[in-house]
Design a protein that fits this description.
Blueprint (H helix, E strand, L loop, with lengths): L5 H24 L6 H4 L18 H18 L1 H6 L1 H29 L6
Length: 118
């Protein structure tokens, strides 16, 4: 039974060998002439101001997590839409309940100010 996974294992090994070999080869034969301009961080042609180690506000991470949560929840609509006709009214009302809970969650986050940047 494990023999069926042999092609996948070979593909993983080949991909890892290619990635490792590319990194090793580029570090061995690539040019090594660092200058201050090459070592400076590049941000769309703008000279960097301040340290790259500055802290972000917690609100940034909260909004990012909320985006991920609601984005993943919306992904559940795709498989539902694919088999919608075979589910009938039961499937329809289940999705209405799911979207209702999702809407309540969004309303709660909105009311608490989780989406405000100021």
């Amino acid at each position: 039974m494990l023999i069926e996974y042999l092609p996948i294992g070979i593909l993983i090994l080949l991909a890892a060998a290619f990635a490792g070999g590319s990194v090793l080869l580029s570090s061995l034969i690539g040019p090594h002439r660092p200058t201050p301009e090459k070592l400076a961080p590049y941000e769309c042609g703008i000279t960097p101001v301040g340290s790259a180690r500055d802290r972000f506000a917690v609100r940034f991470y909260v909004v990012a997590m909320l985006f991920i949560v609601f984005d993943i929840e919306i992904i559940f609509l795709y498989p539902w839409a694919v088999i919608y006709r075979s589910l009938g009214w039961f499937g329809f009302w289940e999705m209405v309940a799911f979207l209702g809970v999702l809407g309540l969650g969004l309303g709660y986050v909105w009311r608490k100010g989780g989406l405000e940047w100021e």
